[in-house]
Amino acid sequence: MAADSGQCTVLVLLDLSSAFDTVDHKILLHRLTFSMFANNIMSKVIPFLHGVPQGSVLGPILFLLYISPLGKIISSFNKVSYQLYADDIQLYYSFSDSELHNCLQLNSSKTETLIIAPKHKVSWLKQHLGSLGSSSQPSLRNLGVLFDQSMSLDRHSRHLVKSSFYHSRNISKWTAMLSKLFMLLFPLV
C-alpha cells in the first residue's frame, strides 16, 4: 500500500446520475454484438427503450460492458488506479508531497473524497487539492464498507456492532410475537 512507502492517497468516489436509465442502447447493443457473437449465431435481443434493468442479475454486467471504454481512458493516466462496480466508479491516486502540484482539479457536488495520509499532512493536502480537498470527508461509505482516513475500519466495526444489536433486538421481539401467534393458530389439543 502507498501509505507504507510514505505516500499519500486520494480516493475519489464518482456518482453517475441515473446511470442505468441513461444507457444508449445502440452503443450497448453494438458492444454486445461484438462480444456475444459466436458460431455465426447472435443472442436474442430483448427490446428496451431506455436504460438497463436495474436490480437484475445482468444489469451490472451490461452496464460494465457499456462503460468499458472508460477504463481504458483512466488507465492512460499515469499512477491513477480505478475500480468499477456497476455504476460506482472509484479512482485512486497515490503521490508524494512533491507531486501534489501536478494533480487535476475536480469540481463536482456529487464527488466524495477521502484523503489517506498521516494526520499531520491532511490539512495541508486539503488546501492544496482545491475543490477536491474541500469535498474531503473524514470517512465515507464505499460499496457498503465505511472507510476512514487512517484505514483502521474502527468506524465500520462500531457501525456493524450497533447494527447487529439493533437487528438482534428486533428478531427477539418477533420471536416472542411469533410464538404467541403460533400458539393461537395451533393450540395444544
UniProtKB/TrEMBL annotation:
<protein>
    <recommendedName>
        <fullName>Reverse transcriptase domain-containing protein</fullName>
    </recommendedName>
</protein>
<dbReference type="Pfam" id="PF00078">
    <property type="entry name" value="RVT_1"/>
</dbReference>
<dbReference type="InterPro" id="IPR043502">
    <property type="entry name" value="DNA/RNA_pol_sf"/>
</dbReference>
<feature type="domain" description="Reverse transcriptase">
    <location>
        <begin position="1"/>
        <end position="147"/>
    </location>
</feature>
<dbReference type="InterPro" id="IPR000477">
    <property type="entry name" value="RT_dom"/>
</dbReference>
